């Protein structure tokens, strides 16, 4: 009887692991596949970029930024779509930054598959086009899943990223999976790695890291492990009492200016010399 129970338990565990391997992208990505309407975007103060056609890559604010401090390309978390993140525009445009809300393949009606490789390749093209259209200096902001994309883009020496902001980040996706499901060897099954520690090893420009104190999705230890690994100039912000999706997004929050002042300070110093 004991052997039977052991056998059935092993089979059940194997089935669970196989399902996790085969359908993991359905467990990681939660895209809003519907293309937002122009009326909806206008109500949020956004417009399609570079144009409202099928080749759009994201959104920008309808109003011009209140200065020329640089370009911010923001990459959102794994659920919804870029149009849901208008708070980046409302917070950063008044500080003088042009903001591009980048959209992923497979999200918001855009063509393409889900996954680390297509996301990173598409992100590099979006950043290149945005830099050509709006100039620099260039800053990248990643939120949750977007941190993995941003770290991979910043790792490319051909892309002149002056500073990076990471909001609710992690060390690597396999490490997060293992922390959340410690009884299963999921770290060996996760195909999309998003290894932020590895990707940011050689990056030497400022990195601002913001974590939610009560993050229920990304274990605090994984966020801090990334922060501690950084060799670049760095600074940590902790949102007290906040969860993964309840960190402060209001445009009047002081931390927006603080992080942008931090990541832009060294670049401004170099340009004055």
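Q: What amino acid sequence fits the structure above?
A:
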């Amino acid at each position: 009887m004991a052997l039977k129970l052991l056998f059935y338990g092993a089979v059940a565990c194997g089935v669970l692991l196989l399902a996790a391997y085969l359908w993991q992208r359905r467990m990681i990505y939660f895209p809003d596949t519907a293309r937002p309407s122009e009326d909806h975007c206008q109500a949020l103060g956004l417009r399609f970029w570079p144009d409202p056609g099928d080749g759009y890559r994201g959104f920008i604010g309808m109003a011009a930024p209140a200065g020329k401090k640089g370009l911010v390309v923001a990459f959102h978390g794994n659920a919804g779509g870029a149009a849901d993140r208008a708070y980046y525009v409302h917070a950063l445009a008044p500080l003088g930054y042009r903001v591009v809300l980048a959209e992923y393949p497979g999200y918001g009606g855009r063509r393409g598959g889900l996954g680390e490789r297509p996301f990173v390749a598409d992100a590099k093209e979006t950043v290149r086009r945005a830099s050509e259209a709006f100039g620099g200096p260039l800053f990248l902001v990643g939120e949750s899943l977007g941190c993995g994309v941003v770290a991979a883009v910043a790792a490319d020496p051909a892309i002149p990223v002056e500073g990076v902001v990471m909001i609710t980040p992690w060390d690597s996706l396999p490490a997060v999976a293992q922390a959340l499901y410690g009884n299963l060897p999921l770290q060996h099954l996760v195909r999309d790695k998003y290894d932020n520690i590895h990707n940011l090893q050689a990056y030497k420009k400022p990195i601002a890291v913001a974590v939610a104190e009560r993050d229920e999705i990304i274990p605090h230890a994984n966020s801090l492990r990334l922060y501690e690994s950084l060799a670049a100039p760095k600074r940590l912000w902790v949102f007290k009492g906040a969860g993964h999706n309840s960190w402060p997004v209001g445009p009047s929050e002081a931390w927006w200016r603080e992080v942008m002042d931090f990541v832009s300070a060294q670049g401004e110093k170099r340009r004055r010399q």
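Q: And what stands out in the fold?
A: Residues 2-22 form the longest helix (21 residues).
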